[in-house]
Structure prediction request, 88 residues.
Amino acid sequence: MQELKKRTGFEVFDGNLKDHEKDIEEGNPIVVEVRDLADFTRKIVNAVISRSQGSVPDGVDLWFKDQEDKLVLEPGSIKVIEEMEDDD
Prediction:
């Protein structure tokens, strides 16, 4: 039986990134909503994101969910520069 690993890092809905693809490709920081997998809290962050795991220096795993709330199997990377205030 295959053992499931606990996911760590952050999770993001892929749809939240659609307007930021150019910045992501160029390695520019973006402001995006993520879920912290340590405590499952929702956060708005200014961060550098990559769709490739381990490709952001000092980054952690970033797990992507599609529009049907299905998890993409391979994580990318995220380095949070700043946690933003939530205006809610």
The longest helix spans residues 21-26. Residues 10-83 form one domain. Residues 63 and 75 are 5 Å apart (CA to CA).
